Amino acid sequence: MARKTFAFQLYRTKREKHLHQCIDSAGGIYNHCVLLQRRYYRRFGGYINYYRLKKHVTRLKKWNRFAHWNLVGSQAVQDIVRRVDLGYQKFFRKENKRPPKLRKRWKHRSFTLTQAGWAYAGGNLLSIGGIKYRFHQSREIEGKIKTLTIKRMPTGRFFVFFSCDIPETETIRVKTGRTAGFDFGLRRFLTGNNGEEIEAPLPYRTALKALRQASRSFSAKQRGSANWHHARLHLARVHSRVTNQRKAWHWELARHLCQTYDAIYLEDLELRGMQRLWGRKISDLGHGNFLRILPHVAKRTGTSVGLVDRYFPSSKLCSVCDMVNHHLGLRDRQWTCLACGTVHDRDYNAAVNIHAEGASSAGGFPVRSRESV
Ligand SMILES: [Zn+2]
After folding, report:
1. pTM > 0.85: yes or no
2. For ligand 1, a single-atom ion, which residues have Cβ within 5 Å?
3. 325 C-alpha vs ligand 1 centroid, how far in Å?
4. In the chain, where do the E strands start and end?
């Protein structure tokens, strides 16, 4: 069995206020648990385990003062307590530097239901806590629904996520007999060793003006005021439009590449270092995001993706004679090999090297698949 998640946006409706209340209450429970743990830690130096915490919350729900907590079903409560518990476990195992933090109410994003508290009988009609909601059903839901998560996006819209169990299907791939190596670039998103050039649309750039204006207006508002919340939502909407466009393009590109090639070789990126070097343009293009999407599509289509070690000198190596040009600067778009005299396009040369390196050591060191990491 495999897990697959289907996401849909809910219709706008006044009944949304129930969802707001649910999420706000879930946030209240979360914060209550965190505060409780803090107090316990100060006094006894340890933390309250999952079962005691769950029992405690269940008891509090019977009190009048916490009556609104009952909006959150018992399974969602379990989910919250589990998350707090996990945060503390990680903190005590020193995997996290800090214990879970308190969250602002509007920052609390979601609640998850498993078996109870919801009903779905097909179509785009969904009932949560006895209240009916419709969603924009952009595709069929496959398999058996295991959990349902309602998420409040920063834009103020709600999404429903159906997490489903679907039977694993074997991928039958028709081999294309083609492999390719690609170099990530700032000007061109990808340059292939076969000359394929993939330009990135820069939705972020075109929306930059709107984004700047929105963020300026946001920072001019008084924190916490009604106008501030309006501006916050507007800014979030501009952001989300940009992100969605970029994401859609990444999926489309991943599908295109996986259908065209049996094996794809790319350079593993040290994104943080690149961001320091190049600034916003990198996050603009979303190389890292693309590297996360590609293995998903590859797995489905039976394509292999190999990542060439980030220390492999793909740009500085002459793809004709293997001389390493140590003087190659970051901004040199073209260079001439001193040993063999070949004039190289920086990105194309790198792509040729990545392809050769990937194909020669496929499966072994230093090529590694991100999935196996
Ligand atoms: Zn050379």
Report:
1. no
2. 318, 320-321, 323, 337, 339-340
3. 9
4. 2-9, 110-113, 118-120, 125-128, 131-134, 144-152, 158-166, 179-184, 190-192, 197-198, 263-267, 304-308, 334-336, 343-345
